[in-house]
Specification:
With 172 residues, this protein is of the alpha+beta class. The chain has one domain: Aminopeptidase (3-Layer(aba) Sandwich), CATH 3.40.630. 34% of the residues lie in helices and 34% in strands. It has an 8-stranded mixed sheet.
């Protein structure tokens, strides 16, 4: 599969909100929330498109000094298990290297095993729980962090799994 990842534009937001609603149900970010994020100097948002030019996933993060907080990664249900989410995560990590961010953090539902497995594959570790973090069902969130991404242990693993990903999906 080929996908193109680029910086999210205002014109992408309607499609992003559609994926957001399908991914998260009634408790999802609004169109206004995404538009606000696009004008936030701390935020970086990405959109992934398939060969037909359809938006199939998105991701966002904030960088504050040496730390990046991933705010969301979502993929259209029709394109899950095709490495789109992984390619978006890789894009964020690549940008962290480029922008000299050393640490990456995120929250993830304790029930989201697929996402947890992906984050662990990329070196994230659970360092705590936020009780009742998700408002729609009071579900807990795992707080996950990377070690310093410039340390050899992280970099060597990242290079290995990045190379494996490139053999499975073509990212432009």
């Amino acid at each position: 599969m080929d996908i193109k990842i680029q910086h999210m534009q205002k014109s992408d937001v309607d499609s992003v909100v559609e994926i957001e609603a399908r991914a998260y149900g009634d408790h999802h970010w609004s169109k206004e929330s995404f538009l606000n994020e696009l004008s936030n100097d701390l935020a970086r948002y990405y959109a992934a498109f398939n060969n037909d030019g359809n938006l199939v996933g998105y991701a966002g993060c904030w960088q504050i000094l040496e730390e990046v907080h991933i705010t969301n990664i979502a993929v259209s249900p029709d394109f899950r298990r095709h490495k789109v989410g992984e390619a978006l995560l890789k894009r964020i990590i690549d940008d962290c290297y480029e922008n000299k961010a050393k640490y990456i953090t995120l929250e993830v539902r304790v029930s989201n095993n697929a996402a947890i497995n992906l984050y662990e594959k990329y070196g994230f570790k659970s360092l705590g729980t936020r009780k009742g973090y998700y408002q729609n069902n009071n579900e807990d969130a795992l707080i996950m962090w990377t070690e310093n991404i410039f340390y050899d242990k992280f970099k060597l693993n990242y290079e290995k799994i990045s190379s494996e990903l490139e053999g499975k999906i073509n990212v432009k």
